[in-house]
Sequence to fold (423 residues):
Amino acid sequence: MVSGDCTSFGSAITPIRLTVTHSRSNIKQLNHHLPVFSEISSSSEQIAGSEDLLTEIFLRLPPKSLLRFQCVSKHWLSLISSAHFRRLHTRRNATSSASTVGVFLCRHPNYDFLALNDERISEMGRIYDRLSDSRGSRVVSSINSCNGLLCVGFKSDDAKTDFYIYNLTTGHQRYIPVPETMLVKSMNLAFDPKISDDYYVVCVWLSVSENRLQFSVYSSGSGIWRHSNEHCNKVDLCSYGGVFWKGSVHWFSQTSPFLCLQVDNCVFKSMPSTDIPEGQWYRNIEYFGESCGRLHLIEIHKPQDIQFDVLELKSDYSCWFVKYRVNLEFLTNLYPIMVNQEVYPPEDYNFPYAFSTLCFLTDEENRARVLISLPGKIVVFDIHNGMVKELADIQPHSFRNFIGGARYDCFDAYKHVETLAFV
Fold:
């Protein structure tokens, strides 16, 4: 017979005292329950002792959890930190929409991080808090992201810019040496973990003597720059960061044809552009980016429009087509400050609505959302169910004033996903 008691005093608990009285009936009852505990113990030991089982479990966990689990034991540390596991985890989770945790938003000369999964309106954390001490006193001059890696340019007082590749999840970094002869216009990351462990940096630089744009590609695997024979005479074409999709970096233009450079052979590829509206000399493109393996574009044809189309490029590069139609007129009832004619009459101001589409997000379940910057707020709009969720407050003193409030301009958002990828 088994008996005992446990007495607690505040936070202290006295040990349990057991009294065992032998009898046949009690021994039979005790033996009846022992296999349950032994089976659980045996299963735990099997899992803990099997590297294959542990690997399958760990591959289904997010990177930040795995980094914490490295502290559990030497065995777990050895497994999770191994190059084989990290490569396997990066490839397995390369297309997981669940890994998208937020966006970096530009506020020159600073950049802020906005979490997408917080249940409350959050204060945006500074990107400086996520970078290592390599920044020093330099300011962030440029940023480009791709599948969890970040290319950051630091400008010093002498106007020199140094470029680093960061994995903010693991805290690792790598310096990218740029030849002094290359006057950098933009640095663009190209990283597809499903294809390779290596990433590439596509540099668009200005040849001053020839007054044209040149293209060069840096490989993390070889550490060598390859220079393309291609060039572009439209020196303002690549002023915006490029978007990596299907092995190529893509650039849009408000006035010229779009551009596409294949990373593997440094050769241009034909790419369709959208039409410039009749009576206008430019496109009013609000968003250009990749989401869930597809390339999207948002263009507002007239400044007075509060509705727009989300275009998607066909995988064969044949044409752009309308994927979604979005009408944000209902937002003016929720946020009257976005209606500019409340401050200035329409005849005195050509932009009656104050909003920017910062980011378009879709996932494997075809859930589509648009991240929108309004004066004083950042909200996310779910296209399918029409729900609006506030993500952050923007204080006017933090940004330039814009008709009674503050907001981010277009092309200020860079998606961030968690990854264990090497840099």
The mean pLDDT is 79. The radius of gyration is 27 Å. The longest strand covers residues 100-107.
